[in-house]
């Protein structure tokens, strides 16, 4: 199950930010979104993930194939690492959390409360969550924030393994992930052009 | 769904604020009332059922903003919204968790606090039954209010302003039932009205809460 | 008449253009009928044989009480239109109407208190009707506060619309709950389709004029405020566009 985005126009806070975005993400492939801050990468990812409706255009995918990871990891400080992962696994109807713990080398931390982790460790836990969901399409917003070089490599390896299993990933990032096989999509050219001021019609923008 | 409920209950227990805070607030309200109106036990007996209902309502109000705000701040709500749970189920579970951690302890504590306010003997049963029927609706309405104000920085006061008028029918029928019980009157009518409103609220309001929450997640 | 043609007025531009022409007429009509109705009612009607001259406050009390409820109904309708058809003017009209409704509720409560003092010997009683209006006022306050609290206009419109729907159900429930809770002092409705139950004709005609005046006043105010809201909204949109560059 892939992801097909056609002629998508998206808005943030009522203002159009990107328009005419089209791409196809096939199983086994990854797309890296690039562009300056504030261009609308997060909004694009949230729209594709179904969290907000597009202004126009279509996102064709099975909503049950997508897992989204935003700026915050959704980690509960008072739950242990294992409890956090177990919870998300149960929500997505899965049981296996060992693979995810191994992939992000969280073995020594499993019983620690998540509140005591460092920012990088929390991020690794947040990324491990992707694995326990068992969903094929990953939508990741700045996944490598606060990760060190070693952890970035860990993440790249996890993505590569995911692609090998027939999964796919849509990643917004500023740094080099070490994923040469990923297709890079510059979102800058899709920047929305403001309509003529006289053109106020039903909507205000 | 069970997983979400268990997680919420576990969080409430570990964070400390869950079970204890609402109950402690309820106790304080009950303690302060005699200071305000005087210690005469016949006066207290007359207003006890009303005070207990008001106290329960305010204690319930106290923890409403925590129902969704914490999950909003750490991003869990975004992730839950893309999980295979319908939003209606999420808000219902949230309300249920709130009731189990706040409403139910209040119901169980009410008879004990009734002693403090010299609640007459025939009043205990209808008081507990009315609270048992009414507090779930308080949690469900509160979740609606929490969903409305979840994205706001200073949502707490606004939440009270939005939720309290919605509590009016439940307070009226609940307190009326408890009062009639104290006076030894027949309380079938308020009992049925209260049960009806609670059932209707639980059945319908989660759809509104879910719609509101989806708007706020945009 | 083709009903679809009506939706053209939901376009902000068309709305501004049309109201530009309509507003002066409505305003003048509102002022004229208010003056005629109030002067007629206050000075050219006899005193009531039981209530004396206090009865004349009816010319403020009844129209404002009517409007307090009807404004909420209008907000309910415009909220529904926003939810179903997503016309921005509709949402903004609901926003514009709320403070007017709140003021109408206060006028109804205040005139009721002033009337109640000589009649019942008390400024305030926890009578079902009075209590219902107080609760209605709280609903207005919550609705307005929610509009003010949210930055994004579309989000605010969505949330307040749903609050208006839910609030209407609970306001209705409260109305019946309050009736059950306390039997009141308040007389029955002053107006009904059953002619026999109405107040006498001498009071009735000026009252009708006053009601018409209040309705026209509300229409004039809501048009004016909606125009302001549309312009404010457009200004915010232009500012946002400027920031985007």
Q: What structural category arises from helix and sheet content of chain C?
A: mainly alpha
- Report the CATH architecture of chain A: 3-Layer(aba) Sandwich
Order of helices and strands of chain A: EEEHEEHHHEHEE
Uncertain segments of chain A: none
Adjacency order of strands in the biggest sheet of chain A? 5-6-7-3-8
- Which chain pair shows the most residues in contact? B-C, 29 and 26 residues
Please estimate the helix content of chain C: over 70%
The CATH topology of chain C comes to Four Helix Bundle (Hemerythrin (Met), subunit A)
Q: What is the rounded distance between the termini of chain C? A: 45 Å
**What is the overall shape of chain C?**
globular
Q: Helical proportion of chain A?
A: 25-40%
Uncertain regions spanning at least 5 consecutive residues of chain C: 192-197
Q: From the alpha-carbon coordinates, what is the Rg of chain A to the nearest angstrom? A: 18 Å
Domain ABC transporter (chain A): 3-205
InterPro entries (chain A): AAA+_ATPase (IPR003593), ABC_transporter-like_ATP-bd (IPR003439), ABC_transporter-like_CS (IPR017871), ABC_transptr_haem_export_CcmA (IPR005895), P-loop_NTPase (IPR027417)
Protein name (chain A): Heme ABC exporter ATP-binding protein CcmA
Pfam families (chain A): ABC_tran (PF00005)
Which terms summarize this structure?
heterotrimer; A: 205 residues; alpha/beta; Rossmann fold; 5-stranded parallel beta sheet; 8 strands; B: mainly alpha; 85% helix; 0% strand; elongated
Task: Describe the protein in words.
The complex is a heterotrimer of chains A (205), B (218) and C (245). Chain A has helices at 41-48, 81-91, 98-103, 119-133, 149-164, and strands at 3-12, 15-25, 30-34, 56-60, 66-69, 137-141, 168-172, 183-186. Chain A is α/β, with parallel strands linked by helices and 205 residues long. Chain A has a 5-stranded parallel beta sheet with strand order 5-6-7-3-8, with helices on both faces. Chain A has a 3-stranded antiparallel beta sheet with strand order 2-1-4, covered by helices on one side. In chain A, helix 2 packs parallel to helix 4 (119-133). The longest helix of chain A has 16 residues, at 149-164. Chain A starts with a strand and ends in a 19-residue tail after the last strand. Chain B has one domain (2-217). Chain B contains 9 helices and no strands. In chain B, helix 2 (17-37) runs antiparallel to helix 3 (41-62). With 245 residues, chain C is an all-alpha fold. Chain C has a single domain (23-244), classed as Four Helix Bundle (Hemerythrin (Met), subunit A). Chains in contact: A-B, A-C, B-C. Chains B and C meet through helix 7, helix 8 and helix 9 of B and helix 4 and helix 5 of C.
